[in-house]
Amino acid sequence: MIQHLLHINHVSKHFGGNVAVSDISFSVDEKQIFGLIGPNGAGKTTLFNCISGFYPVTSGDIIFDNKTINNLRPDEVCHMGMARTWQRVKPLGSLTVLENVMIGAFSITNATRDAEEIAIEQLRSVGLTDYAQKIAGSLSIGLKKKLELARVLATRPKMLLLDEICGGLNHTETETILDIIREVRNKGATIVFIEHDMKAVTAICDWIVVLNSGEKLAEGTPEEITGNPEVIAAYLGGGHNA
Ligand SMILES: Nc1ncnc2c1ncn2[C@@H]1O[C@H](COP(=O)(O)OP(=O)(O)OP(=O)(O)O)[C@@H](O)[C@H]1O
Ligand SMILES: [Mg+2]
Question: Which one of 92, 121, 151, 239 has the lowest number of neighbouring Cβ atoms within 10 Å?
Fold first, then answer.
């Protein structure tokens, strides 16, 4: 039976007079790959920050795994099985690739040996085994994005929030990341995916929500969204990678 894992229920987030997120509602089903798209400044990252406990919501409720999580801290949300990546990847640059992923693993174990085992397994799953002992800061952007993915996977999340994980990547690198995401979903995780590359979004997402100026403009299947005149006018027709 399909179950909702995440409910966004009339969520708003104001920064002073700036309404970044305005009365947004939607639900994400278990094992879905769910796309969150929209123009720059639409409120996508702000919504992620609210969901993952980095910003308190101004109003509304966020329900994850049948629990209201509005007032939880980021580490508490993470312990419930939700992990997020950052639009601007920020690995601990002076640590090795392996150590960065072990930090993710330490959210589910206190034992160094276990953390190392989990990290090695996740580095393998994203194809970074050969880079384990490299200093994270020395990696290319494409490899840093894979490292970011390995770090969140090491928390063994039920749900991953991916904020432009393919941003700045070439076609081949994007394809590799999409394959990893499909694999992660096939193993049982649920994914919410923010991305501007419409080819990537339509290739991978089961369901898409479009935000525009903080409001929900539309939701539907990739076919419905790419054929929606309002979405085309507000976003897809505007010179993006549609
Ligand atoms: N910490 C903050 N303080 C004040 N305003 C903020 C803050 N974070 C975001 N905003 C504002 O909220 C609005 C939405 O920004 P957000 O970063 O969520 O957009 P986005 O959809 O992720 O855009 P992009 O595609 O460019 O990443 C913008 O007007 C932004 O200036
Ligand atoms: Mg953003």
Answer: 239
Q: What CATH number matches the domain at 14-81+157-242, 1.10.645.10, 3.40.50.300, 2.30.130.10, 3.30.160.20?
A: 3.40.50.300
By the 10 Å C-beta count (0-12 exposed, 13-18 middle, 19+ buried), 175 is classed as: middle
Residue-wise pLDDT for 151-185, tens only, equals 999 999 999 999 999 988 899 989 999 999 999 99
Q: Which atom of ligand 1 is nearest to the CA of 47?
A: 18
pLDDT score at 1: 60
Report how far residue 28's alpha carbon sits from residue 77's, in angstroms, rounded to the nearest whole number.
16
With the most atoms of ligand 1 within 8 angstroms of its CB, the residue from 19, 40, 46 to mutate is 46
